[in-house]
Amino acid sequence: MQKNMMKNKYSIIDIAKHILDCSDPSEKVRLTHFYVRQWNDGLLTRDTDIGVDKLPSPGRPEKPELVPPSKVAKRPMNTDEGRQALVHAICHIEFNAIIAWDAVYRFRDMPEQYVTDWLKVADEEAYHFSLLRERLNEMGC
Fold first, then answer.
1. Contacts of 63 (CB under 8 A, 6+ apart)
2. Which of 54, 71, 101, 137 lies 20 to 30 Å from 45, alpha-carbon distance?
3. DSSP tag of 6
């Protein structure tokens, strides 16, 4: 990551790109929590002169393979399988919502409160994802 040499701090812009590129869910959650705390403690800069790279799809794990909802078997909600499928689907939604980092990366000229608000969203979504993943493990998934 690029450093702002004047202040010797990391840029939230570089960090956002790094987290967006990260494909390991545990690492994405860990980095999100860590860097949101760093931002809130005033330990990061916001260098808006860093070029905006075109971002590919956000980093995701290779497995499980993403399939369209129409390709997934319907499961009644009054079964264990149905409840597991629902929690699994919500878990995917929360994991994808961690890409709130995208708003920080792309719209870097917005006011500082904008960055802080989106980082709060990313942090909350990472927390929700962790809770749901834990629940899936408890359910034996």
1. none
2. 54
3. T
Buried b / exposed e over 103-122, threshold 16 CB at 10 Å, is bbbeebeeeeeebeebbebb
pTM of the model: 0.75
Cβ pair 104, 118 in contact under 8 A: yes
Q: Phi then psi for 82, rounded to 5 degrees?
A: -65, -45
69-91 pLDDT, tens digit each: 677 777 777 888 888 888 888 88
Specify burial of residue 77 (Cβ count, 10 A radius: 0-12, 13-18, 19+). Answer: exposed
Residue labelled with tokens 């971002």: 55
Question: Exposure of 8 by Cβ count < 10 A (0-12 exposed, 13-18 middle, 19+ buried)?
Answer: exposed
Prior bond of 64 cis (ω within 30°): yes
